[in-house]
């Protein structure tokens, strides 16, 4: 009996063909992964902007309940301690999570369920900062010296910043980075220079900086941006006192000032009140020269 065999070998990929397929996959990954990352960041930016909008609505409700007086940066009670503005607005919010930006880190672990997750940390280290120098007054550097100011003092509600993305910048950080914890207060670019020499008002600083500083002449961006942070594709989410919120590029944040490379924070002044977005209540009510 004779048998007939199939002399053809089993087909398969050659080494060169496999290498070509791997190379194509690598090229596609290199193209698509950045697109996916950008899409994720866009979603986080949108979520952050929604949170900022909700915080702005809470601020508006506080305003209505307190006879059009804006929330102070903080209050102090000997029995209860210090309540920052976010705690004062707490009755008007559904969740403290609106003060945490999804694009921001959480180095202290306060936004999870750990032992540090409580309002005492949330109110101080939130990722959106209040424009406290433009919208409230801090007299004599005392614990209970912060005061709310009438909303009628804001001449341009749709053009005056209420909140902005924030991140603390310590003395060891040469430039703003999105690796630090948040900070509940942000500095107006031109107010720091005006308030520092004034005898009756006070402002925060980190031991070296407090305003918007661009002393490194060759730097592409300022060295210190008042604890604001352009964490969203070189821009900030910003809420305004009229209730709307939007994304802005970094340059828009200091528009209307003379800030430029080589300029110290103590020399920053308002040059155009129509484009300056931070208000100027401290000078309006005569607290600074």
Task: Write up what this structure looks like.
The protein is of the alpha+beta class and about 290 residues long. The chain has one domain. Helices cover about 25% and strands about 15% of the residues. It has seven helices and eleven strands. Strands 7-3-6-10-11 form a five-stranded mixed β-sheet. A two-stranded antiparallel sheet has the order 1-2. A two-stranded antiparallel sheet has the order 4-5. A hairpin with a 4-residue loop joins strand 10 and strand 11. The protein is globular. It starts with 14 loop residues before the first helix and ends in a 5-residue tail after the last helix.
Provide the descriptors you would attach to this structure in a database record:
two-stranded antiparallel sheet; single chain; five-stranded mixed beta sheet; alpha+beta; about 290 residues
Helices and strands in order:
Blueprint: H1 15-65, E1 74-77, E2 81-84, H2 85-88, H3 119-125, E3 128-131, H4 132-135, E4 136-138, E5 146-148, E6 161-165, E7 185-186, H5 191-195, E8 212-213, E9 224-225, E10 235-240, E11 245-249, H6 250-253, H7 281-284
Parallel strand pairs: 3-7
Antiparallel strand pairs: 1-2, 3-6, 4-5, 6-10, 8-9, 10-11
Outline type: globular
Biggest sheet: strand arrangement? 7-3-6-10-11
Estimate percent helicity.
25-40%
Averaged pLDDT: 86
Number of helices: 7
CA distance, first residue to last residue: 115 Å
Structural class: alpha+beta
Q: Please report which band the strand proportion falls in: under 5%, 5-15%, 15-25%, 25-35%, 35-45% or over 45%.
A: 5-15%
How does the major sheet shape up?
Answer: 5 strands, mixed
The helix/strand series, from N terminus to C terminus, equals: HEEHHEHEEEEHEEEEHH
Number of strands: 11
Number of self-contained structural domains: 1
* Uncertain stretches: none
Taking all Cα atoms into account, the compactness measure Rg is 25 Å
């Amino acid at each position: 009996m004779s048998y007939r065999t199939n002399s053809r070998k089993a087909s398969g990929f050659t080494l060169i063909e496999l290498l070509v397929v791997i190379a194509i996959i690598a090229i596609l990954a290199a193209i698509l992964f950045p697109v996916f990352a950008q899409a994720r960041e866009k979603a986080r930016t949108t979520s952050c902007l929604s949170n900022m909008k909700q915080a702005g609505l809470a601020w508006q409700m506080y305003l209505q309940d307190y006879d059009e007086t804006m929330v102070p940066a903080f209050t102090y009670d000997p029995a209860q301690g210090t309540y920052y503005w976010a705690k004062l607005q707490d009755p008007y919010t559904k969740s403290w999570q609106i003060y945490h930006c999804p694009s921001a880190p959480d180095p202290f672990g306060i936004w999870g369920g750990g032992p540090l997750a409580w309002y005492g940390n949330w109110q101080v280290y939130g990722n959106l900062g209040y424009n406290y120098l433009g919208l409230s007054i801090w007299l004599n550097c005392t614990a209970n010296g912060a005061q709310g100011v009438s909303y009628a003092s804001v001449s341009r509600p749709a053009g005056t910043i209420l909140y902005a993305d924030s991140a603390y910048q310590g003395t060891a950080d040469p430039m703003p980075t999105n690796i630090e914890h948040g900070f509940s207060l942000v500095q107006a670019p031109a107010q720091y220079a005006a308030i520092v020499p004034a005898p009756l008002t006070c402002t925060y600083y980190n031991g070296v900086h407090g305003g918007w500083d661009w002393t490194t002449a060759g730097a592409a961006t300022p060295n210190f941006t008042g604890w604001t942070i352009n964490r969203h594709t070189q821009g900030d989410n910003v809420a305004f006192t009229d209730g709307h919120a939007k994304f802005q590029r970094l340059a828009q944040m200091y528009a209307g000032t003379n800030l430029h490379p080589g300029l110290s924070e103590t020399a920053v002044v308002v040059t155009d009140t129509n484009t300056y977005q931070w208000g100027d209540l401290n000078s309006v009510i005569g607290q600074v020269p």
